[in-house]
Specification:
With about 375 residues, the chain is an alpha/beta fold. The protein has 2 domains: about 120 residues, Alpha-Beta Complex (Aspartate Aminotransferase, domain 1), CATH 3.90.1150.10; about 230 residues, Type I PLP-dependent aspartate aminotransferase-like (Major domain) (Aspartate Aminotransferase, domain 2, 3-Layer(aba) Sandwich). It binds pyridoxal-5'-phosphate. Pyridoxal-5'-phosphate binds next to helix 5.
């Protein structure tokens, strides 16, 4: 039978035990966590939109009109006008033919792989990809190959050796969620075109943050639907709402609707979320100052950390990890920061490779330079 207790004890001893903290305030850089007021550096609400008054108003207004639950799956009677409008807006926003909404990013990734490839096919992924992409490849039943992080040469070798597979799907994080660096989509998409592989990017951490109008990594790197045919991004991070979408050709979107089981067999998200996302997209597009402020804060933090002799990761995004290495040491640092009023989570395996436990600092446009100064002082104190 299951021996839950001894397995849980082993996890605790290895410094791998995970704990949920109870948040008793609105999502903000100022949070009440387990009853304590904290300055938070670990949310993915990069643009500070999760509690934006106009987005809240759009959500509440939609609830008044549409109620809360969607009642059923999109293919039964759950596909509201608001979902429909939001999909059209997302397609325009990303410069793709069509877009399809999902309740969350994990399921969107499962849907993409399971609809596009099967047992006879092959999937290629970066080793540092998000867990949902790895699970998606496994669920699809396709042959699964992983290349070293950002190692384009190894990817090419793998593609060369895989010409016999009928369908080849490349899946990569756009911005790597635990490192903060970016995939070189110019090179990857070029290789995919050369070797007849279908190219997919998960832009969970780039959408809203990168690109001139917040269109994400592909907008920043100037890549079209022809070059990267599958764009997936989540809406619970920079967009400040919830859910995810896939954008691409009409053929791709219609194929997902017809074939993707993680799309078909689940209840549609509440329509009010789509209304909130619609409002959020307007703000993302117009309020460039949020991206400019983030860029300034990122530079400020990096400069200060390097002055303090911390090793920086090659990240130009709001994800700025400090690698500690040992699991228990990372936990201890996080705990000491907590005692000093800072919420910075320790990220441990299997989320990151063994031996690279880290403090994952994330910045938000809601932070100020004074907040960063406080954090740096906290870090120095916590290290002593
Ligand atoms: C957060 C995340 C997801 C999952 O999205 P959810 O909407 O939270 O399920 C997928 N991919 C990446 C890279 C992520 O960071």
């Amino acid at each position: 039978m299951f021996d839950f207790e001894s397995e849980l004890v082993k996890k605790r001893e290895a410094g791998l035990y995970r704990k949920r903290r109870v948040i008793a305030s609105a999502q903000s850089v100022h949070s009440v966590v387990d009853g304590q007021h904290l300055l938070s550096f670990c949310s993915n609400d990069y643009l500070g939109l999760a509690s934006h008054p106009e987005i809240k108003k759009a959500f509440i207004h939609a609830v008044e009109h549409y109620g809360v639950g969607s009642g059923s799956a999109h293919l039964i009677s759950g596909h509201s006008q608001l979902h429909h409008d939001c999909e059209q807006r997302l397609a325009e926003f990303t410069g793709r033919d069509r877009a399809l909404l999902f309740s969350n990013g994990y399921m969107a990734n499962l849907a993409i792989a399971s609809a596009l490839v099967g047992r006879k096919d092959i999937v290629f992924q970066d080793k540092l990809n998000h867990a949902s992409l790895i699970d998606a490849a496994k669920l699809s039943g396709a042959k699964f190959r992983r290349y070293r992080h950002n190692d384009i040469a190894q990817l090419e070798t793998q593609l060369q050796g895989s010409q016999e597979y009928p369908h080849k799907l490349l899946m990569t994080d756009g911005v790597f969620s635990m490192d903060g660096d970016c995939a070189d989509m110019q090179k990857i998409s070029r290789l995919c075109l050369d070797y007849d592989a279908y190219c997919m990017v998960d832009d969970a951490h780039g959408f809203g943050v990168l690109g001139e109008r917040g269109g994400g990594l592909l907008q920043a790197q100037g890549l079209t639907q022809q070059q990267v045919p599958v764009l997936m991004a989540t809406l619970g991070k920079a967009a400040g709402t919830a859910g995810a979408f896939v954008a691409g050709s009409a053929g791709l979107i219609e194929t997902l609707i017809q074939q993707a089981r993680p799309y078909i067999y689940t209840t549609a998200a509440p329509p009010a979320i789509a209304a909130a996302t619609l409002r959020s997209l307007d703000i993302i597009e117009k309020e460039n100052w949020r991206r400019e402020k983030l860029a300034e804060l990122i530079q400020y933090l990096r400069q200060a950390l390097s002055n303090l002799d911390y090793d920086l990761m090659p990240s130009t995004t709001p994800i700025q990890p400090i690698v500690i290495g040992d699991n228990n040491r990372a936990l201890e640092m996080s705990e000491r920061l907590l005692q000093r009023g800072f919420l910075v989570t320790a990220i441990r395996p299997p989320t990151v490779p063994v031996g690279s436990a880290r403090l994952r600092i994330t910045l938000s446009a809601e932070h100020g330079k004074a907040d960063i100064d406080l954090l740096l002082k906290g870090l120095v104190d916590a290290s002593e």
